[in-house]
Every structure is written in C-alpha cells, then in structure tokens.
Q: What sequence folds into this?
C-alpha cells in the first residue's frame, strides 16, 4: 500500500513555532525529506529517523524522492521552511502528481500542513506592519523574470498595500533591495514611508530595525532578512512598525 | 510588578493548528481575553482559567481590558483567530500602548505570537493557490472605505498577484464578492482565471471548491469562507488550485 506524503510548513525553525500537526506528521513519518539546512533544524528531535536531503536548486529531485518513497509504501514528511505553500514545495508537488497518479496513488495521498511564513513571523517581531491588506513579493529572479517583479512592486504601491519582501538579497543580487526601493519611490511611495526588517526570524541572532523607505534604500541586508514596507498610514511607534486597522480610539 | 501581554494568533481553531508557543502562552497566563466565539474554541483546554470576552465590534474594550489586567499584575493571553497581526489585535494594542506606558510598563510587556492565518491554512486545503507572490485583501468596509478596497483589487490584478480574499460576505454585504469579481474582470483578469474557496477552514464542516472567476462571480459564499483568485498562470489540477513557482520539470 502506498504511503502518505505530508508537505509541511515548519515555520522559522524552532519547535515552539511549529504547529502540533506539523510536528506530529514528522513524528509519524518513516522518512523526512528537505533542504539540508532545514533538516539540520529538526534532526535533533528525531535522531532515529531516515533523512533525505538535497542542496539548494535541487528542489525537484526532492519532490521526486517523496513520490518514490510514498509509492514504495513509506510515509514521508517533506519539510519546507515557513509555510509549505508560500514559495514552498506544495505547488511543484501538485504539478508533478499527475505523472505519478495510478489507481492506488493520487491526491488522497498528499496532505499540506500549513506553517508560519516569514511575513507572519517577521511581522510579530516588528509589531504589526501588515495589520491591513498586504502583499508578499519575492525579489528572487531565479524563477521569475525581473520585469514581473518590478510590475508587482509598482502595483503594490499603487494599491497602497503593506508589503513583505522575501529574498531581498543574495551574493549575486546584493543591490536588489536598493533597486526595489527606487521602483517603489518612483511609483509614488513617500520617502518617509515606515519600513522595517528582521534578520534570522525565530532563530539564533534574531534582530530587527525600523527605518524610512529612503533609509532602507541605503541599507545592506543579508539573505536571512525579511523586509517590510508599510502602507501610507503605517507609523513607527516606539521601535515597532504599526499599520492601523482603522479603529477609532476614545 | 506588571504582567505580560501575549497577543496570540491561534490559527483556525483546533489545538493541532496552533504553535506550541501559542498554546503555552495561554497555559501560563492568568487570564485569557478574546472574542466570545474564539474563547469558546479554547475554553475546553483551560477549564480553570479566568476569561474575559466581548462581542464583535467591541475590540477596543478587549484591548483596554488586556492593559488593565497586565498593569494590575496579571499575565494575559489575548487571542485572535488566525494570526495576531493580520487584521488582528496587534496593531490596536501598539497604537494604544503609549497611553498606558509608564516607567514600569511598556513595549517590553508585550509579545506577539504569530499564528496560521486563513490565507495560509485555506491555501493548504485548496492545494497551492498562493505559491508565488500574493496579496491579502479584506472586503469588509466597516473600517476601510470601499473605494480603497476597489483600488486594491484593481492593483492586485494589474500586478498579476494571486489573491486571498477575507470577509467576502456578511449579512449586510451579501453581494460584495460579486462586486469584487466584476472589478477584477474589468481590471483585465481573464474570466477563466482559476479560483477556489474554502469554508470553515480547520473546523467542523470544512469544505472547498475550485471554479473559474466567472463562476465565482455567481457563487454565494458565507462569512466563514476564504476566497482565492489565482494569478494568470494558476491552474486547476485534479480538484486543487496550483499557482506555479516557476520550476521546469524533466
């Protein structure tokens, strides 16, 4: 009989930030599959388990390994950092599923278990930067043409959304956040727009800062950073960034 | 000595969808504060606790009660459905904090504990509808002028975001989803755009459907529904909706 595949959002990393469902799916699986770095974060809880890891850019090998394990009868926990369906492995798994579908294997063998994505966990650290309508945009152009990213940044400003930016930087893209800030300024965002960023959310070395959009433009962040741009009503209160929901206080 | 306030995202409701941090903050608090309906979802786990509930539209009373309890020395768990900072209570709490700040009470007394918001938990049920850049938009015009909501729907289509729609309907706003669909169609969304919706996410009676944008326009949903609009690349695979991340398969 074929096994079950649990595509699991593990949150930022620590067990305390996982849901009970995420942890117990790992517990009951025969094998845990994931990116090397994330596997290292959960290994200590399951010293006796079988693990299958692949490095970065080998995501599809990871997906195919999950199907192979499940079809051979093993229950598989496929872990993603943050959420399973936000830039996660849920989409490629459902895209590949028809290739593996038989009378004995199909949609009923796959469960997605959601997790706390960085927009949510980072927002909690910074206060309440996305407490109204918001967008999530990745600056990584590995899989997305840059002109589409540019269009989304412009639309986000036109719609006056609060924005969470993923993958703001990498070795090859160290100036992408600067470029993104220029695009947002050109699209009409005020240079004093309230912004903030969090490094190493929910991990060792977590830190955060608030600043204006103008200041953000001249800030170098690393690849472990999630960046937040407030909407036109957002404000810095103390050292938090707050996007009002619209309540009146008396 | 003043107590701590934990503003907690409890996820869709069941304990299995809470993070360990969320549950343990409730466990160690002296009093649990929240909207009547959400308190009923956690009461069974803490039969001995003190509870403070207020009905809908009494959110600010709830916030003030948290401050009063904490200043009187009690630890307070302030629970929100989904996440604490997505249309949640984190923003009003930080907006009210300066009123209550003294030498002995301030930012250090407040912790936001993130949770799984409906965009994430609903997406997991539907497959992978927001597996690329996405927006979250609430159709509730209680606290937001409708023209701003309209502008955001238009911008979301212009930016070709996947979209999660909160509060698509209520007794007084039964035709708001229809209006939203018209706006998106007028903004250039294809009538065959892949869409889906989930009712009672992670609760008794959970159900989901996929459809086209045109079909969605003629669908009546209730207030316990979260609606998803794919981007221009999204597709229905089996009975799931999938927004590709952009991987090539071989």
A:
């Amino acid at each position: 009989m074929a096994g079950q595949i649990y595509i699991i959002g593990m949150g930022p990393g620590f067990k305390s930030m996982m849901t009970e469902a995420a942890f117990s799916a790992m517990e009951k699986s025969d094998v845990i599959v994931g990116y090397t770095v994330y596997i290292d974060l959960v290994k200590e809880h399951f010293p006796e388990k079988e693990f299958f890891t692949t490095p970065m850019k080998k995501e599809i090998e990871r997906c195919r390994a999950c199907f192979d394990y499940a079809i051979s009868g093993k229950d598989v926990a496929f872990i993603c950092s943050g959420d399973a369906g936000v830039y996660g492995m849920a989409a490629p798994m459902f895209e590949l599923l028809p290739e593996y579908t038989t009378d004995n294997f199909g949609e009923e063998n796959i469960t997605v278990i959601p997790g706390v994505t960085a927009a949510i966990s980072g927002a909690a650290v910074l206060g309440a930067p996305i407490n109204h309508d918001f967008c999530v945009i990745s600056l990584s152009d590995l899989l997305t043409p840059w002109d589409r990213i540019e269009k989304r940044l412009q639309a986000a400003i036109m719609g006056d959304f609060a924005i969470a930016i993923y993958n703001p930087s990498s070795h090859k893209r160290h100036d992408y956040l600067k470029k993104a800030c220029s695009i947002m300024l050109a699209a009409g965002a005020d240079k004093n727009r309230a912004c903030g960023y969090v490094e190493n959310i929910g991990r060792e070395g977590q830190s955060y800062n608030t600043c204006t959009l103008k200041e953000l433009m001249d800030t170098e962040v690393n690849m472990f950073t999630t960046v937040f741009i407030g909407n036109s009503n957002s404000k810095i209160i103390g050292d938090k960034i707050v996007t009002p929901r619209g309540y009146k206080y008396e």
